[in-house]
Write a structure and sequence with these properties.
The chain has helices at about 25-35, 40-60, 75-90, 110, 115-120, 135-140, 150-155, 160-170, 190-205, 225-245, 250-280, 290-325, 345-380, and strands spanning about 65-70, 125, 135, 205-210, 215-220, 330-335. The strands form two sheets. It has a four-stranded antiparallel β-sheet. A two-stranded antiparallel ribbon has the order 2-3. By secondary structure, the protein is α+β, with helices and mostly antiparallel strands. Mean pLDDT is about 75; it is low at about 15-25, about 75-100 and about 175. The chain folds into three domains: about 30-60 and about 345-365; about 65-245 and about 330-340, no CATH class; about 250-325. The protein is about 60% helix and about 10% strand. The protein is built from 13 helices and six strands. The protein is elongated, with a radius of gyration of 40 Å.
Length: about 375
């Protein structure tokens, strides 16, 4: 054991000093401050809860109707191969008759988001409860006479939306604010149609369940029956657009074969009448030149009949292929008129506003306490 010299002392460890500008946080002190200001927190929470109650009471009601579907995709290659085999037995070559490509269900939401789809949907007529006749969705959202009064929307319009109202009043009503031309060569949306299209995008949606392979089409509207009408109209429109996309190629093939068939039929009938007239006019003639002309007409008639017969078979096969290629959205769960509203969820709105108010009050007190500590430490450091 070695002794340390008398003039040397063992160093004593000192606690680390607080750096300049560092703020010490005492959780117990913060908890005490919050408890002392509990009345302030409760008041702020109560004010926000009152606002939430107002919003919950005067929010517009919405009803949700949905339909669940399964896309039935045809096995194009196998079916086309079967038809080609049957045609080959009859001596007909169908070629690439069954060449329609499948349309992936992941494209369906893009179809619904397209301008033509929205335009067709907004001009669909539906029956509202308080309106004696059917009107289009476009008329419902653009005609103020059809819109029910909603206090909350009115307050939003003249508070948060007041700058937009002022700008619209300063610019004046656009001359193109009416209905856009639906027969124009190019697609065009008026300002009102564009506004209605945005509304429909938020109210009509399509969700894809890749795991189960189902499609869920949903519509949220102000009335229960209207939501069911809209979701059914959207389903039928989606079926139409998918069909148009899918069978476009096979329809083009059908139109081509139909044209060739009409030409072959016309030529065959003309040659048939020409051959009949020749036989009637040369019934008792035995000249070699006449026999040669008759043989030539018979050969031309046989050739035209062969072409006409084969095109008739291909035409029937093309018609079958058009029907076979038509996709079907099988409805698994049909749309039902809802009995309960989906929005607003009043208890959730009330709880959410109350929680947000409490959070704001606590945050304000914490910020105030940190600010006071920062100022106190700054004065202490300056001294």
């Amino acid at each position: 054991m070695t002794n340390t010299p008398n003039n040397q002392q063992t160093p004593i460890e000192t606690p680390p000093t607080k750096k300049s500008g560092e703020i010490e946080i005492d959780l117990l002190e913060i908890a005490r401050k919050l408890w002392d200001n509990r009345r302030f927190i409760l008041k702020v929470t109560a004010i926000f809860a009152a606002v939430g109650l107002f919003v919950a009471i005067f929010s517009a009601k919405e009803y949700t109707s949905s339909v669940t579907m399964v896309p039935q995709l045809s096995d194009g290659k196998s079916k086309a191969g079967g038809l080609a085999g049957l045609a080959a037995m009859a001596g007909v070559n169908l070629g690439d008759l069954g060449g329609g490509s499948e349309l992936s269900p992941t494209i369906y939401p893009k179809i619904m988001a397209s301008v033509p789809f929205k335009k067709d949907l907004m001009h669909t007529k539906v029956k509202f409860e308080n309106i004696p006749h059917e009107i289009t969705l476009y008329d419902y959202y653009t005609n103020k006479d059809y819109q029910p009064f909603n206090l909350l929307n009115t307050i939003k319009k003249y508070t948060i939306g007041l700058p937009g109202v002022i700008l619209k009043a300063m610019k004046g009503e656009s001359r193109e604010s009416g209905v856009g031309s639906r027969e124009s060569k190019y697609l065009r949306l008026s300002q009102k149609e564009e506004a209605v299209a945005k509304i429909l995008s938020s109210k009509v949606s399509l969700a894809i369940n890749e795991k189960e392979g189902t499609l869920n089409l949903t519509a949220n509207m102000s009335e229960a029956l209207v939501s069911t009408q809209v979701v059914e109209a959207a389903r039928l429109l989606l079926q139409k657009y998918i069909t148009d996309f899918k069978v476009d190629k096979v329809k083009q093939n059908l139109d081509f074969i139909q044209q060739r068939y009409n030409e072959a039929k016309r030529n065959f009938e003309q040659k048939q009448m020409q051959l009949a007239a020749f036989k009637d006019g040369n019934r008792n003639v035995i000249l070699a030149s006449v026999q040669t002309s008759g043989e030539r007409l018979n050969a031309e008639y046989s050739l035209l009949y062969s072409v006409y017969s084969e095109l008739a078979k291909q035409l029937e096969q093309a018609k079958i292929k058009v029907k076979d290629a038509t996709p079907v959205l099988t409805v698994v769960e049909p749309a039902v008129v809802p009995n309960q509203k989906s929005k607003p969820n009043r208890p959730l709105i009330l709880i959410g506003f109350a929680f947000f108010g409490g959070f704001i009050a606590v945050g304000f007190l914490l910020f105030k306490e940190l600010k006071n500590n920062f100022i106190a430490n700054k004065h202490k450091n300056n001294e």
